[in-house]
Amino acid sequence: MPHVITQSCCSDGSCVFACPVNCIHPTPDEPGFATAEMLYIDPAACVDCGACVSACPVGAIAPEATLTDSQLPFVELNAAFYPPRPPDEKVPPTSKLAPVPDAPVVRSRPDGPLRVAIVGSGPAAMYAADELLTQRGVRVTMFERLPTPYGLVRAGVAPDHQSTKRVTRLFDRVAARRELRLYLNVEVGTHLTHEDLLAHHHAVLYAVGAPNDRRLDVDGMGLPGTATATEVVAWYNGHPDYAALPVALDHRRAVVIGNGNVALDVARILTTDPDRLAATDIADHALAALRASRIDEVVVAARRGPAQSAFTLPELIGLTAACDVVLDAADHELVRRDLCDETDPLTRNKLEILAKLPDASAPATRPRIRLAYRLTPRRVTGATRADGVEFTVTGTDEVRRLDAGLVLSSIGYRGRPVAGLPFDEADGVVPNESGRVVDPASGRSAPGSYVAGWIKRGPTGFIGTNKSCAAQTVHTLVADYNAGALAVPSAGYGDLDRFVRERRPDVVDSQGWRAVDAAEIARGGDRRPRVKFTSVADMLQAAAAAPEPPLARRLLAGLLR
Ligand code: NAP
């Protein structure tokens, strides 16, 4: 079921960059873009991943099945932009994104193909691999700490946003490429060093994301009953490091501090009917806990006003469609005031939705979400566990207290230093120029070291944003390789597999991942997309059931060394 661009299209092209299959046109570099009345999705090429929906700043894109009667003419309008083609003919799914200039062609060299190690297997890593493998002869080795790939797509995207997870279909195709070797359950820094990787590759590209939470520095955070929203996200998504996280659902109210998209995700999951979640890939332990939950209100508390809300318009629209969302009278007044001042159309759209929300004084019929504004967190109260939060009304001395048994900070992610590379403490990123790691103190680049994704640019944007980000890094890397700036690896590529398995006998390769994937899908049965394994031991056991690759594939793997 393809997605459709509708009347409110703002033509800023964000969706073009987010789309993993290049099915939205005209792109900013195509003739006609400047004069186009809107952009159009090719229904034959759309893979329905929903990446464009997240990226669209004006909420103009929707799956065809959800259009209102007045929007139906846009189905035809989108399709009419493209030449007719047989219904089963698709644009190649890993086609390159048009607006990113073509990477320099890798110049073949007598010392063998360009070999790149990618650390991480989330969206930035997968898009970087996809971009590298558009070039003939390039070899990619991907290392991931967990026995399962795809980073935040698996462990971060909310379970009720299954369509967003469809981007893994693209990633599966990239991971299945013969020129890519996948080594899961291998931690660079523990089992292998940066130097080990450089000995076997011309370059190491870190796409390790921003795995730390920004911590809220107020008294009481750390008490039982407090956590970060991202920990709770990892818990309900079955991340093995967080399966045992204690999440206090035995009180009627939870408070989430911060109002970005992560806060909305958590608030939505905490208030959604567990019977609906039972049809998703939410972790079984989380589903059981949510069934027993006593929470009937989640307050999402922002320190600034409605016009500065950090959540995006599509996520607000999605939230109000899925959940009961209310504002109290004082916050309705703030919305009205902001509406009088605000001229930015995107923010006005958000404010208009907020203005229409029911008042918090209306009786609740099911668990609900209250968006609250101008509340600066002061401390979490409670002697042995959290029992509430004290805020000051921002800009005043007035103190307000909310009872709560669960207090979650949701104030953003933060990158973690990478051993051997410079680190920018202020921004939580590895300093770089177009993806090439550069030490700001000396101005020198770190030989053979590159970054992509959140560790490169900070924790902003959507899954699809990583596509152009990764492409930029790959272009830099290839240009450096062609210029002779990358040292020839000292070790042969043929030795790598043995070397990795010696260091990490429990390594899970692509065959092992496919076995884990198939086992999880089988556990899901007819009703659920999958039932995840939530312990490393169970994942390894499922991976061990992988059949030996067929002889032909083993022979081919030998030839590709
Ligand atoms: P975010 O969008 O950066 O929001 C952070 C929130 O924390 C803001 O409300 C910010 O308020 C608040 N904050 C920061 N420091 C604070 C403090 N000391 N005290 C109180 N509040 C504080 O972060 P996020 O929600 O973690 O999202 C990260 C990225 O992932 C974003 O780009 C987001 O769009 C993306 N994401 C997207 C989706 C989706 O598309 N479905 C889902 C999840 C995440 P101020 O504005 O006042 O600083």
Automatic annotation (TrEMBL):
Show the InterPro entries listed in the entry. 4Fe4S_Fe-S-bd (IPR017896), 4Fe4S_Fe_S_CS (IPR017900), FAD/NAD-bd_sf (IPR036188), FAD/NAD-binding_dom (IPR023753), Ferredox_Rdtase (IPR055275)
**Cofactor needs:** FAD
What SUPFAM superfamilies does the record point to?
4Fe-4S ferredoxins, Nucleotide-binding domain
Q: What is its EC number?
A: 1.18.1.2
Question: Which reaction is recorded as catalysed by this protein?
Answer: 2 reduced [2Fe-2S]-[ferredoxin] + NADP(+) + H(+) = 2 oxidized [2Fe-2S]-[ferredoxin] + NADPH
The protein's UniProt keywords, in alphabetical order, are: FAD, Flavoprotein, Iron, Iron-sulfur, Metal-binding, NADP, Oxidoreductase
Q: Gene3D superfamilies under this entry?
A: 3.30.70.20, FAD/NAD(P)-binding domain, NAD(P)-binding Rossmann-like Domain
Specify the 4Fe-4S ferredoxin-type domain's residue ranges.
1-29, 37-66
Q: What class of enzyme is it?
A: oxidoreductase
Provide any one GO MF term from the record. metal ion binding
Q: What is this protein called?
A: ferredoxin--NADP(+) reductase
